[in-house]
Amino acid sequence: MRHGYRNTHPNDPSDHHDNRHHAGHHGPHRGGRRGGRVFDYGELRLLLLAMIAERPCHGYELIKAIEERFGGSYSPSPGVIYPTLAWLDDMGYATIEAAEGGRKCYRITAEGEAFLVANRQAADALLARVGHGGAEPPPAPVIRAMENLKLALRLRLQRGPIDQATAESIAAALDAAAQTVERSA
């Protein structure tokens, strides 16, 4: 154990010392997840560790692989991924190797493998929940429309403040679209 971190289970509720950087940064609501987060506390650590156990890779590759596992509906931010990878390194569960172009490649250590073995059931359940990638992605028109909506919202918000009537109009349009999607066959 390095840098004074405690060696706790990734879902140990008594381990609050580094939870602050994770709060509210895990994307959209997934049925039953606390606080509307995609991952409960510690699950992202376990997922990243399981993924680098399969194949050492760069942080950006991990972001893209998670996005692929979610079919494009969720992409973790670098502000969530890199601190989590740093935590895995600090705990001795992963090591960082220099790679081409000054990039960092994350590789699981023997201690990380032992931790993964000890938490295999939780890791397997997590991998089953998020998928293994390679699943058929949403159809191209759906991806295009999702990206178009994100861009339209971002551009509108950049133009300046939104009054209450405009906010309600935008929310009504989004709610109507959500209901249409939910009712689709």
General description of the model:
With 185 residues, this protein is mainly alpha-helical. The protein has two domains: 20-130, Arc Repressor Mutant, subunit A (Orthogonal Bundle), CATH 1.10.10; 140-183. Helices cover 52% and strands 5% of the residues. It has seven helices and two strands. The chain has helices spanning 43-54, 59-69, 78-91, 110-118, 120-130, 140-158, 164-183, and strands at residues 94-98, 104-108. A two-stranded antiparallel ribbon has the order 1-2. The chain is elongated and about 55 Å long. The chain starts with 42 loop residues before the first helix and ends with a helix. Mean pLDDT is 78; it is low at 1-35.
The low-confidence parts are: 1-35
CATH architecture of the largest domain: Orthogonal Bundle
How much β-strand is present in the residues? 5-15%
| Rg | 19 Å
User: What is the average per-residue confidence, as pLDDT, rounded to a whole number?
Assistant: 78
End-to-end distance = 51 Å
- List the total number of helices: 7
Helix content: 40-55%
Class by alpha and beta content:
mainly alpha
For the sheet with most strands, the description reads: 2 strands, antiparallel
Features:
Arc Repressor Mutant, subunit A, mainly alpha, 7 helices, 185 residues, 2 domains
SSE order and pairing:
Blueprint: H1 43-54, H2 59-69, H3 78-91, E1 94-98, E2 104-108, H4 110-118, H5 120-130, H6 140-158, H7 164-183
Helix pairs in contact: 1-3, 1-5, 2-3
Summarize the structure.
With 185 residues, the chain is mostly helical. It has helices spanning 43-54, 59-69, 78-91, 110-118, 120-130, 140-158, 164-183; strands at residues 94-98, 104-108.
